[in-house]
Every structure is written in structure tokens, then in C-alpha cells.
């Protein structure tokens, strides 16, 4: 039987783009549990903008597969959470609907691009939220807001109804205040869906229990190298020592492909974005173009006013990287580098069960601190390798640096979500 | 190095409107970012055709799709069951 409730809590952090008025929910494992949905995940009858003016007013005629699963599980969908425009950012400041504030410190950014989801969970507005992670967009805000966020293996969660940014890397992932809640939401959204051509048919997730004793944990030197704040490195090193105290074996290792990972990620994601975002011209959905202008002028005008600066920059750079004469230099080389990252992980996972390091090289940025685009891209260096290789990775809070939250990142073999969730739970509960 | 003319050309072919006032900013940022991407020059291999995922096609089976009404609901001022677009000539 369907039940209803009204959500009337204030949202001082601007975590939501849209809050639903009459919220209904049913029976199931998530019955009555409040859930926020990132605004690039299609919700039938509920406006879905990807944080962009160009999609303002777009009301999807169908649900993403994960939304159907949530509704079947009885979840109470509270609203659509704020995000960097089309997922392109590390602070949630590129949203067309204003930045989200970090509930831990409102002068700080919540991270991005799923910053609204992280802020909604951290401030207690919802118990669970969905984010999406193309280059770290679930793990970064989880780290900055002091919550748990999981990027599942590529193919584990259906992308049907997820509005695409960079298809070959993005996954929908669960976010929650603790590992058990994160695992609960993961257990509902994981599974095969024939409507996503990259979906993989695997058994349902196993229940999580704290397991870390006897696990081999690889710690790549590159995750504590140049650009990583020493205070963050120290907090994460202490967390890894705690894993050792719980019975894990720590194995120092190296990942030489890391020096190419960020460039490979950005070339690939911008190239895919330049193709994916070609569809936005206002004709079929979103903002309306001027019909009497010639179409090149009409489309250029609407894309100029509808897209923000970062989105236009990535479309331009992606188109350039794919253009005749440059494809071999950028896109093809990026794919070769991507294979080197995959090979590095394969080599390491023959020796260790889990790879650990910081989620982010720093703590949360100050709002408005974002300088030039390249400096902002460099903040993604520790999260993009998992997306390039398609492996699962989780960020779990592991203390503070500069009085702000720090995340411990645990990466696992393909489809080993249960293993990294169990390890994260052992860390969180301090038992093995 | 890319020039302002290069950026203006890409903007024109991608229908991404870039104002004259933005050209200098974007060109400077492009050159900084592309300079960083040059690290890929030292990657072995990848000089030929791009490598990456291969397409796997599903069977082309007719299934129920969205109604015409649902498809047109988000478009601007549809007419006689058609989507209207700006003029082509």
C-alpha cells in the first residue's frame, strides 16, 4: 500500500535543485527511507536538468532503471540534488542553480560533481543518495563532506536513464553516512539490465560484514606523491596503519601509469562529452531556440546561453582532440595510456586484494577558490584511475586534516564491491 | 599552440557560441591544458587507430516505446505531431 509524507525541511546548503512536494513510497527494503537523486538521473514526471539551464523545464517521460528499482524497494524519493553542470566539476560550483555549501563548513565547497547528494546526506536531509562517478564524482564529495561513497564496477549498475557525460567511464553509485547504509543502497541498485548494453549479469551482492584480517592491501607510492597535502597523507597513513592493526598485510607498491592517468582521463572524457552534448539544441527538450534564425545561428545562440563556461570548454577541447590531424596525438594516445592503467591494476591485483590511498589530495576547497581549469582538473588525479580501469572504489571517512574531513579510498578487483565494502566496514567499526 | 582562429573555428563547427571577449581566455586555457596533455606523447603505442571498447549489438527486436504524445511533450511548440526546428536555409 502506498504511503505519503510531506518534506518541509529547510535546505540552507542548496543541496537540492528540486524538492518533491507530495512524496509517496511503498513496501520493501527501503520502505519510507528518504533518498536524494542526482539531477542527471531521469525521474519520470520530475524535472531533470543535469544542473544546466539548457535542460531547464525538461521532464523525463520515463524512469532510469535505478529509479524504478528504488521505487520497487519502497524508497521515498525526496528530490533531485545539485551537481556540477553535466557532472563537469570538482566543487558543484559549475551548477546553473548556484553552488552547494559543505555542511561541515559552509565557506567550503562540498566537492563534486555529486556535491548536492553528499551535502543532503551530511546535513541529514536524506539518509541515502545516488551520485554518479565519471572521474571521482561520488568519492570526491564523499571525502570532502565526511560520508561514504561507492563507485561500483563499470557494468554493475545500469546506466539506463542516466544522462550521459562520458559513457565509457561513468557509473551510478550509492552515498550514505555509514558503510552499512551505503551497502544497503548498493544492494538495491546493483544488477543486470538489458537496456544498458554494458550491463553485466552477476549474482546479487552478498550481505556485508566486517572483514579485513588476512587481506593484502597495496599502497602505491604515487598516491602519496607530489600534489598530495602532507596533512592529508598523514591522516590516511594512520588509517592504513589501523587496517594493519586489524590484521591486514600492507604491501608497498608502485603504479607507473599514474603519470599518464589524468591526461588520459581528460582527453577521453572530453572527447566523449563533445559527442554526447551535441544533442542539446533546444529543439526536442529544454530551452526553446529562436525558430526564425538560420539553424547554425540559432543553435550557437542557445548553446551559448544554455551551457556554462566549463561545459563549453570541454566540448571544444573534446572536439579538438578528436579532429583530423590530432586524433592520433590525443585520443589514440589516451586509449593506449588507459590500457597501461588497466595493466598496472591487473599486475597489482595479482599480488594484493585491495589498493588503498587518499581519495583526494586535499581537503575541501574554499567556495570561489577554484582558480584556472587545469589546477581544478589536477585534483582528480587519485580518483580517475579507477574509472579508466572500470574497477570499484569506495571513499570512507578516516579522520581530519586542517579540521576538515579526509577520505580513505579503497579500490578492488572488478566486481569485488563486497570485498571493499567489507574492508571499509571493518575500518569504520574498528573490528575485523 | 592553438590560435584564437583555431578556437573560433572549432566553436563554429560545434555550434558552441564563443564571444569575441571569451576567445582570448579560452585560447590561453586551451594552450595550458594541451601542454599538460603533451605528456601522452611519451606513451608507447597508440599511434594508429584508436583502441578501446568494441561495439556489441543486441538483436533488433521491436518492443513497446514511448507514445508520440510523451515524446513531443518536451519539445517547443510541436505541430501536427511533428517537432519544429529552426529554418535550415
Automatic annotation (TrEMBL), chain A:
Q: Which residue ranges does the record annotate as region Disordered? A: 89-118
One of its Pfam families is Amidase
* Swiss-Prot/TrEMBL GO biological process terms: translation
Q: Which GO terms describe its molecular function?
A: ATP binding; glutaminyl-tRNA synthase (glutamine-hydrolyzing) activity
Keywords, comma-separated and alphabetical: ATP-binding, Ligase, Nucleotide-binding, Protein biosynthesis
ATP-binding keyword on record: yes
**GO CC, alphabetical:** glutamyl-tRNA(Gln) amidotransferase complex
Record InterPro entries: Amidase, Amidase_dom, AS_sf, GatA
Domain Amidase: start-end pairs? 25-421
The broad enzyme category this protein falls into is: ligase
Q: Which Gene3D superfamilies match?
A: Amidase signature (AS) domain
Please list the residue ranges that the record marks as compositionally biased, kind Polar residues: 89-99
State how it assembles: Heterotrimer of A, B and C subunits.
Q: Which family does it belong to?
A: Belongs to the amidase family. GatA subfamily.
Function text: Allows the formation of correctly charged Gln-tRNA(Gln) through the transamidation of misacylated Glu-tRNA(Gln) in organisms which lack glutaminyl-tRNA synthetase. The reaction takes place in the presence of glutamine and ATP through an activated gamma-phospho-Glu-tRNA(Gln).
PANTHER family noted in UniProt: GLUTAMYL-TRNA(GLN) AMIDOTRANSFERASE SUBUNIT A, MITOCHONDRIAL, TRANSAMIDASE
- Protein name, per record: Glutamyl-tRNA(Gln) amidotransferase subunit A
TrEMBL record, chain B:
Q: Which SUPFAM superfamilies match?
A: Glu-tRNAGln amidotransferase C subunit (SSF141000)
Q: Which Pfam families match?
A: GatC
Gene Ontology biological-process annotations: regulation of translational fidelity
What the entry lists under Gene3D superfamilies is as follows: Glu-tRNAGln amidotransferase C subunit, N-terminal domain
Could you name the domain of life of the organism this protein comes from?
Archaea
The record's listing under InterPro entries reads: Asp/Glu-ADT_sf_sub_c, GatC
Record-linked NCBIfam families:
gatC
Protein name, as recorded: Glutamyl amidotransferase
What species is given as this protein's source?
A: Methanocalculus chunghsingensis
- What's the source species' lineage? Archaea, Methanobacteriati, Methanobacteriota, Stenosarchaea group, Methanomicrobia
